[in-house]
Request: fold
Amino acid sequence: MFRIEADRARFREIVRGRIRADLRRYLSTGELIGRAGEHAVSIPLPQIELPRFVFGENPRGKGGKGEGDGEPGEGEAAAGEGGGAAGSQAGGHILEVEVELDELAEMLGQELELPHIEPRGVKELASEGGRYNGVRATGPDSLRQFRRSFKNALRRTLASGLYDPRAPRIVPVREDFRFRMRKACPAPESSAVVFHMMDVSGSMGREQKEIVRIKAFWIDTWLRSQYKNLAVVYVVHDAVARIVDQHTFFHLRESGGTKISSAYELCLKQIQERYRPEDWNIYPFHYSDGDNWSARDTELCISMLRDEILPRVNQFCYGQVKSAHGSGQFKKDLDGALGDEEILVTACVNDRGDVPEAIKAFLGKGR
Reply:
């Protein structure tokens, strides 16, 4: 039994080693997004199969090797006979392995050499204290408080007139027992909110939006490993911005013009009304192909970032995805006007192969 468990543990290490070796490939593909659950993700690994025994009975009249009458070598010849023509393709052996998202985040951090984040905003959340600083009338015997229980029994005996000083005897009953308890008290706990803002206008094609979805998945995976309490807000925009759920964000197909300031205005409104910087670590991520409605709107975006958004957030990230229809001008304007701002990070993704470096640029500052 111990040998089997040791073999299975070794096999799991082999599988995880294979995942680590191929992690950069997974960073550039979208196959994990549809396989992600609340706490784990299923990863398909080809050419790895767990050996197992198959139990059954031999067909009647056909024994195994060494059984029954027959000439030497006859069993081997029979065993090699097949019912179909020979093929030239290798057999497909794909094993789906479930990996916890925390473990996947650890692999991501090691692969991209990401530093742990130092939280800024701290929110007071009710949590169980670490010390038993209260008393209650119910609880397990292991937490019974002897002194308080004995005092209650003594008071009850004196009040009932049953106490005899010549033969003092105190017998506690269930109602006398008191038990130690931990009181719930506010404890500081780091909280973070992520704003994923994506341009869904006509200039953003299907491939560009798929790259955005891949980046958003890995960003969320890493930040969830850094914060116990993580809120995610999904914003889509063309000429108008609106908040949507995760499924809509990942599957929306729209057309129309682009007005980036609409997304920044909605993000700022959410920060002012719901996510105060004193309580939250704030991470806005904006994804676009760099095409904006007008130079005047770009000036409005830059002014909003400089005066309102950047002073309130841990870091603002802009990821520009190359598109045949997008001008790519917005990143140039941001870098030219706000290039000295440390908490503004911009990255350009020409194709899926650039995704790992973009993720490293966004998460590699440790803010």
Notes: The longest helix spans residues 206-226. The mean pLDDT is 79.
